[in-house]
Design a protein that fits this description.
The radius of gyration is 26 Å and the shape is globular. Residues 1-18 have low confidence and may be disordered. Helix content is 67%, strand content 6%. The protein has three domains: 23-150, Glutaredoxin; 154-243; 302-412, Serine Threonine Protein Phosphatase 5, Tetratricopeptide repeat (Alpha Horseshoe), CATH 1.25.40. Strand 3 and strand 4 form a beta hairpin. The chain has 23 helices and four strands.
Length: 412
């Protein structure tokens, strides 16, 4: 009886805990969802996601579950999670939405994930957001989605009614580039470029949109604007991506030239192509970009000897290589290479990485390399340290490797 009483007492608590966060609709269809939204006079919020999308999972695990997020969305929206890929593990509920997901992708131009769509109580699309954010910013963005004057569709209609209007073009350029509506953003971009001075156009609020368009076409006006005004973009790239504007330009140019050659299996003379591009684009330094591509080429071919020789030269000559880069290549070697001499060199890179940033995943690489090279005693000591400092979500993974080391089993 006491056990039953305790269970009955816990049920309301468990129910309360489960109700925190956004409550998504299940076992329904689009027509029923619209009927519910209209009856309750609520907007519809649709989370367009895929099972392989990392940012989608992050939003689901860290933002949607928060109580304040749930309160806002449950009060103002009827909420739907719509999966855009198809897997063997899909439930019947997910399968029932397959055709609708294809329609959404076409009708509402869902091309990136996560994409969030907002419909009014009548089922008409009024706003669109691409990419997630922290809870407070996420709530603030969707508060705006309830206000017609701040909705994307409202701004789009106003602009289309007066496409030569500079102020409207500026407004829609920012909104369109944010959601990767490239045709609309390009149209507005050309109007702004035609009616503004270069100084006026290179305002902080325009830089992100210019970068979005530049990624679409290196022969376009947006890319040319960045190429010829790199100083104006330096802070933007540093703050937004932790990268250098030169690295962006070099990557975009070299990828366009090399991608077809790589796809066709053509033999590539990296030094000659770098020389040609450096002549054509004399405001860009390609050395870092081409070095990275050469390393990737060696790895793809599993040419460990050449890769180790060339990358070790860089390690010894460049004191600014990050621990993360060293760790990435060392882990790649651990996973795929069985050449003992090559692994010994990778171990030296991993040791430098540990000295520069002693975090659990870098220590884990060092421990696994030690273990693969036969030094089980020290490998176990380092892996125990990795386990002791890791977060709860990674502890099981690192502990599994530690258990295998203690049993003498392979960890690769």
């Amino acid at each position: 009886m006491r056990k039953l009483f305790i269970m009955l007492f816990l049920i309301p608590l468990l129910t309360t805990a489960q109700e925190k966060g956004i409550q998504f609709e299940h076992n329904t269809n689009w027509e029923k969802l619209k009927e519910k939204a209209k009856a309750e006079n609520k907007h519809i919020f649709v989370d367009c996601f895929t099972t392989w999308c990392g940012p989608c999972k992050w939003m689901a695990d860290n933002v949607f579950v928060q109580e304040e997020v749930g309160e806002f969305f449950n009060d103002n929206f009827v909420n739907l999670k719509l999966q855009f890929d198809e897997t063997k593990e899909d439930s019947e509920d997910v399968k029932s939405w397959y055709d609708e997901a294809k329609r959404f992708a076409k009708d509402y131009e869902v091309r990136a994930y996560p994409t969030f769509l907002v419909f009014d109580p009548n089922g008409e699309l009024v706003d669109k957001v691409v990419g997630g954010s922290q809870a407070d910013k996420f709530i603030a963005r969707f508060k705006d989605a309830l206000i017609p004057e701040k909705q994307f569709i409202t701004a789009k209609k106003k602009y289309e009614a007066d496409p030569q209007n500079l102020e409207l073009a500026q407004q829609i350029f920012t909104k369109a580039s944010d959601i990767y509506d490239i045709p609309l953003a390009t149209k507005a971009f050309n109007i702004i470029l035609d009616k503004s001075s270069k100084e006026e156009f290179l305002k902080k609020e325009n830089l992100g949109g210019i970068v979005v368009l530049a990624q679409e076409d290196i022969d376009g006006k947006a890319f040319d604007l960045i190429y010829n005004n790199q100083d104006s973009f330096k802070d933007f790239f540093k703050n937004q991506f932790g990268a250098d504007v030169n690295d962006f330009l070099a990557h975009m140019i070299s990828q366009k030239v090399l991608r077809p050659k790589i796809s066709s299996g053509e033999s590539i003379d990296y030094d000659e192509i770098e020389k040609q591009l450096s002549t054509k684009y004399d405001k860009v330094n390609f050395s870092k970009s081409f070095a990275s591509m050469k390393f990737s080429s060696y790895l793809k071919k599993k040419d460990w000897k050449t890769f180790v020789t060339e990358y070790d030269k860089k390690v010894k000559s460049d004191p600014n290589i990050t621990a993360e880069e060293l760790n990435e290549y060392a882990w790649k070697m651990f996973e795929e290479c069985d050449d003992k001499d090559a692994l010994k060199v990778a171990l030296t890179w991993s040791k430098i990485a540990v000295e520069r940033n002693e975090v659990e995943y870098i220590i884990d690489t060092y421990a696994n390399l030690l273990y693969k090279l036969g030094d089980a005693k020290n490998a176990i000591l380092w892996q125990e340290k990795a386990v002791s400092i890791t977060s709860e979500d990674r502890r099981e993974e690192l502990q599994t490797s530690l258990d295998k080391m203690k049993k003498g089993e392979k960890t690769w």
